[in-house]
Every structure is written in structure tokens, then in C-alpha cells.
Amino acid sequence: MSPSTGRRPRLAVLVSGRGSNLQAVIDAIDRGELDAEIAGVFSDRPGAAALDRVAPGLRWSAEARRFPGRDAFDAALAAAVDSVRPDWVFCGGYMRILGEAFVRRFDGRLLNVHPSLLPRHKGLHTHARALEAGDAEHGASVHFVVPELDAGAVVAQVRIPVLAGDTADRLAGRLLPHEHRLVVATLALATAGRLDERDGQVRLDGQTLFSPLELDSSGILRPGSRC
């Protein structure tokens, strides 16, 4: 329960595909590891498999191409998200760039998971790009969303080694369960009221973090030592 409201914090989740991060969140709630509730799931793809992971009353979707422009779609999405009164909005595999008006509307409570060790490999095809760059490590990052793509303050990261013989698909497959654990651990901080952002910097329990938290092998987020 939130100490300020006396109710479970509400999560709005934006999705475009399978929804494996959404399922990880649902499973963590069911296990009692995440004190929150899914207030709604929203997609730019009405056929997204992720929508089937929640009850019909929690789903909203619309095809962006049916709107006269990006701003019109974002306004409809923002109105739908706002209607469920979320405490946090989480982009869990949402593949459409959010416009500035949407980002500003949910400023300070809008998080995204990105499959790279930001600031490396912003955008798409991160696994292939990590291999092409000869990276020794790969990973995932949860960050606050700002209008610039994948440029918001990074809250937490998880790292895995790049192994000899890795392909993009193999690397992605090995990373995914770690990404799920990272998402759950970070959202647990957020929904507990321990996480916020001020002037482009992440704060935990009111103290500024000067490097992202790092998820250890036991699933605990610890202060990071790398910039």
C-alpha cells in the first residue's frame, strides 16, 4: 500500500508486442514481490499479444495510422492512460516514439526498459549492434523517459557477458530473464515511493544517484560504481 494514499500503487503499461515484461510484472504482483496493481494496458497495435495477458476491461488499443498525425494519436493515448489514474507509466516493449506532449504530461513517472547498457546503443537492433561493436558486456537499462530517444536519466541496469559464438538472437534470449528481473526490481522501488527524478538526475530515498543502480545475481539493486 502507498503510505500517502492508502491504496496499492497503480501501473499503466504501454506495449507493442508479446508483453513478456508485462507478464513478469503480473507474475511479481501475484507472488507478492511487487505491491502494485495493473490499472491498464495500452497499445498502438490492436493485435499485440500482450493485450491478451490482462482482462478485456484493462485493455486499450488503437492503430496510429488511423489518426491524422502523431500528435492526435498521442493525445488519445494520453487521455486513455490518464483515465485510469496511474501512479506510474511503464513502457514495456512499446515500440513507438512518444511525443513531447505525452512525455511532459507524465513527467517524473514515466519509465522505459531498453535492451542495452545506455548510453550505448540507443534505438533499435541493440543486440546486433553490441556484437558488431565488439562489446564485452551487454545488458538492459530502466530509465526515465524524456522527449529525446532513450536519453532520460538511467535508474538501474543489469549486465551480462557477451560470449563467444553469440548471435543477436542468442544474446537477446540470454538477456531477457535478467531484463525481467531488472524491471520488477526497479518498479518495486518506484511503487514504494522511493524513486523520483529531479533536474535530470535520479533520486533514491531523496538522495541523488550519480551512477545507475546495478542488479546483482540475487536480484537486489545495489549502488553502481560505474559512470
From the structure above, extract its key features.
227 residues; alpha/beta; Rossmann fold; nine-stranded mixed β-sheet; three-stranded antiparallel β-sheet; 5 helices; 28% helix; 25% strand; globular
How would you describe this protein?
This protein is of the alpha/beta class. The protein has a single domain, classed as Formyl transferase, N-terminal domain (Rossmann fold), CATH 3.40.50.170. The protein has 5 helices and 12 strands. It has helices spanning 20-31, 70-83, 100-105, 126-132, 168-191, and strands spanning 10-15, 37-43, 59-61, 88-91, 110-114, 137-144, 154-161, 195-198, 201-204, 207-208, 213-215, 221-222. The protein has a 9-stranded mixed β-sheet, with helices on both faces. Strand 4 (88-91), helix 3 and strand 5 (110-114) form a beta-alpha-beta unit. Helix 1 crosses helix 5 (168-191) and helix 4 (126-132) crosses helix 5 (168-191). The longest helix is centred in the last third of the chain and has 24 residues, at 168-191. It starts with 9 loop residues before the first strand and ends in a 5-residue tail after the last strand.
